[in-house]
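note to self: dont lose this again. the chain is below, predicted strucutre after it. 176 aa total, dont forget to put it in the shared folder this time
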Amino acid sequence: MPGLGGRFSSEHRVFCFGVSIVAERTVKVVTENRKARHDYFIEETYEAGIALKGTEVKSLRAGKGNLRDSYARVENGEVMLYNMHISPYEQGNRFNHEPTRPRKLLLHKGEINRLLGKTREKGLTLVPLKVYFNSRGRAKLELGLAKGKKLHDKREDIAERDAKREIEKAFRERQK
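---
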């Protein structure tokens, strides 16, 4: 349904004979990099397409992807993704793909230039956060512009999470 909402909106509104019907976009998350949110402060996120081969797409649809230890870099005006592991397709033949080959990320030139400028700043890096298929069936990667956390920052996050858990537990016991 083109033209019925913003680019990043999570729902479409369709008007039919005066009745509003909300159609949810279906997004199938293949893999998520949970460790990235633990190790980095995510300042901005970008949605990028991934240039994949046929067997890679079939493997991702089967949920055989891994973002652990992967990273992205801007090189020669292109954004490349390194160390993302996509398992070989089981029914693939001799034309199967290499599991950890570098993959090109598809972004607009303005976004690439902005990322190039930001990554040249001290301490900023490009970290893949999740791989998913959008409502049109295209493989997308959520890319985060991130700054590394120090050990004391990680400890603060853990303490904060534990405090929230305790508060929720007390609330639940109080409501009983």
